[in-house]
């Protein structure tokens, strides 16, 4: 049965995190394991999650503008784990018209989230700056492009970002 959502072409697919496969609404097994490991300092992992997400959303017929916003959020969050943390992972979940991207890491955590959200604020190390990262625009960009962003961080333990995107609305409330 086709989705009654706003996308004519959307597949009745629910993509769950690793080890938690679920049947699609049509009774077929929907989804793959969408779980991408990330390692601190290792740029070879960068972009795997955001790239997969991009093609998954394109296959679902999601508007290009929404795909772009989702990919920016996923990529900036991946880069943050690689630059700032020891290890972590990205996974995403598409349920109907709601995309949730969860990026979690073991790392230093963020002591002052308000400060970290400020444009241009960065603690990126020199090695990351040498790669051109560390402009301090990642978190502000995620916030701007997401419909909702929840940051949960414990200093000395790690950080989790939960990014929500409504796949049916091309722009969000923050984009005038
Ligand atoms: N996953 C994370 N773990 C620890 N600190 C983080 C993480 N993500 C962001 N931060 C902190 O928030 C700051 C701002 O992040 P961001 O806006 O992405 O800029 P940048 O990554 O260029 O420094 C970072 O410099 C860092 O201090
Ligand atoms: Mg960043």
What does this protein look like?
Helix 1 (48-59) packs antiparallel against helix 2 and helix 2 runs antiparallel to helix 5 (138-145). 33% of the residues are buried. The protein has 176 residues and is α+β, with helices and mostly antiparallel strands. The chain has a 5-stranded antiparallel beta sheet, with helices on one face. The chain has helices at 48-59, 64-84, 113-116, 126-130, 138-145, and strands spanning 22-23, 29-30, 35-39, 87-95, 98-106, 148-154, 158-166. The longest helix is centred in the middle third of the chain and has 21 residues, at 64-84. The N and C termini lie far apart (36 Å). Bound molecules: adenosine-5'-diphosphate and magnesium ion (MG). Magnesium ion is lined by residues 76, 79-80, 138.
Question: Which secondary structure elements does this structure contain, and how are they paired or packed?
Answer:
Elements lengths: L21 E2 L5 E2 L4 E5 L8 H12 L4 H21 L2 E9 L2 E9 L6 H4 L9 H5 L7 H8 L2 E7 L3 E9 L10
Bound molecules: adenosine-5'-diphosphate and magnesium ion.
The site of adenosine-5'-diphosphate has 24 residues, from helix 2 and helix 5.
């Amino acid at each position: 049965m086709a989705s009654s959502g706003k996308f004519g072409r959307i597949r009745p697919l629910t993509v769950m995190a690793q080890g938690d496969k679920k049947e699609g609404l049509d009774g077929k097994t929907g989804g793959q394991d969408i779980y991408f490991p990330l390692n601190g300092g290792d740029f070879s992992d960068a972009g795997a999650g955001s790239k997969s997400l991009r093609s998954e959303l394109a296959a679902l017929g999601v508007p290009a503008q929404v795909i772009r916003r989702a990919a920016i959020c996923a990529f900036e969050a991946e880069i943050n784990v690689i630059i700032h943390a020891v290890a972590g992972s990205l996974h995403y979940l598409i349920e109907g018209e709601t995309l949730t991207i969860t990026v979690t890491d073991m790392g230093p955590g963020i002591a002052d989230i308000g400060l970290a959200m400020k444009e241009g604020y960065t603690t990126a190390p020199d090695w990351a700056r040498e790669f051109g990262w560390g402009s301090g625009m990642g978190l502000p960009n995620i916030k701007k492009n997401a419909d909702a962003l929840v940051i949960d961080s414990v200093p000395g333990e790690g950080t989790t970002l939960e990014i929500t995107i409504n796949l049916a609305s091309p722009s969000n409330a923050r984009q005038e």
